[in-house]
Amino acid sequence: MQHTNVTLSDVNAVYDGAEGLLWELIMGEQIHIGGFASSKKLADAAGIKAGMKGLDLCSALGAGCRFLVKHYGVTMCGLDATMTMHEKAEERALAEGLADRIQFRMGDVTEIPWPDNTFDFVWGEDAWCYVVDKSKLISEAARVLKPGGLLVFTDWIEGPAGLTEVEAGRINTFMKFPYMESVPGYRRLMESAGLQVVSAEADSDTFARHVDLYLNMLTMQLTYDALKLIGDNLELFQAMGGEMVNMGQAARAGKIAQGRFIARK
135-178: per-residue pLDDT in tens? Predict the structure, then answer.
């Protein structure tokens, strides 16, 4: 695994600024690969049901919490370290009439501010790739789960074909990731935290198809909108497009993927 020098402050800068707006433009409020369909597949596989209490780690705009509350009848808490994301999450939950069923807090997901044995499930979608200490993240998630509770998440991961250090460095630097885990890596972290792994899989095909979708949206429809967000810098826009093409090629080669994981305490 190739590590960069990216820190939490670097990630905060992304989602407090234009890059965060750009990702929302092309990926929607959920800001993860597959949107609603991916969330539903994950929740159904885990058996999320009405009456459960969940925690979304790196909850961003709060769309994951709102999705689960509206479509699965749960109550949710969300934890995120970026002020802009936190404020927008609260505003949007209030606007949708869901504020009484969702509690958002600002904080570091490696130091979760809730007691042991609080949640029926801990949730995450394509966001833990931004976390430097994933071991602490997983152990903290395990700590706040009730006995029998579920850890349920997707993430951008290194695919089964693997990345060279140069390839990983390019993608991690562009995306502001400290590093990407792998299926075996996440499996080890979950088992070390005392969790029983129910399922752990990598999907490079879905990843590649969605990168193609985002590129098509940017080049065929949303060019003006995207340029406006980055100060009409056409050179930067073209450079970012090149990096996304590179990620699509890596996914088609099985080198990066969307990972899907379920584990039980």
Answer: 999 999 999 999 999 999 999 999 999 999 999 999 999 999 99
Which contacts of 224-231 are long-range, i.e. CB under 8 A and separated by 24 or more positions? Answer: 225/25, 226/22, 226/25, 226/26, 229/18, 229/21, 229/22, 229/25, 230/18, 230/22, 231/18
Domain boundaries along the sequence of the chain: 8-205+256-264
Q: CA 141 to CA 7: how far, in whole Å?
A: 20
For residues 78 and 185, what is the distance between their CA atoms, to the nearest angstrom? 25
Does residue 185 surpass a pLDDT of 90?
yes
Question: In CATH terms, is domain 8-205+256-264 a member of 3.40.50.1100?
Answer: no
Burial class (CB in 10 A: 0-12, 13-18, 19+), 253: middle
- CA 80, CA 64: separation in Å to the nearest integer? 12
pLDDT digits (tens, 9 = 90+) for 18-32: 788 888 999 999 999
**Composition of the chain by helix, strand, coil, percent to 5:** 50, 20, 30
How does strand 102-106 pair with strand 75-80? parallel
Cβ–Cβ under 8 Å, residues 261 and 197: yes
